[in-house]
Amino acid sequence: MIDELPERRRQIFLMAKRDGLSYRDISEQTGLTVKTIENHVFRAMQSLRTKDFNAYLFFFA
């Protein structure tokens, strides 16, 4: 479940998928590099898939 993700990863994932912010916008807001943002979103999606939360992925796609 999304709530089970590490806090920072969850926040970045929601900013990207729920709020529709670009990786660049998230990078500017968090002070992290765009590559780090990409990695957080990728790993969040991997984690959600692994835990069989395809409904969440569908909702945020």
From TrEMBL:
Pfam families, alphabetized: Sigma70_r4_2
GO BP annotations listed: DNA-templated transcription initiation
Domain called HTH luxR-type: residue spans: 2-61
One GO molecular-function entry: sigma factor activity
Record's protein name: HTH luxR-type domain-containing protein
Upper classification of the organism: unclassified sequences, metagenomes, ecological metagenomes
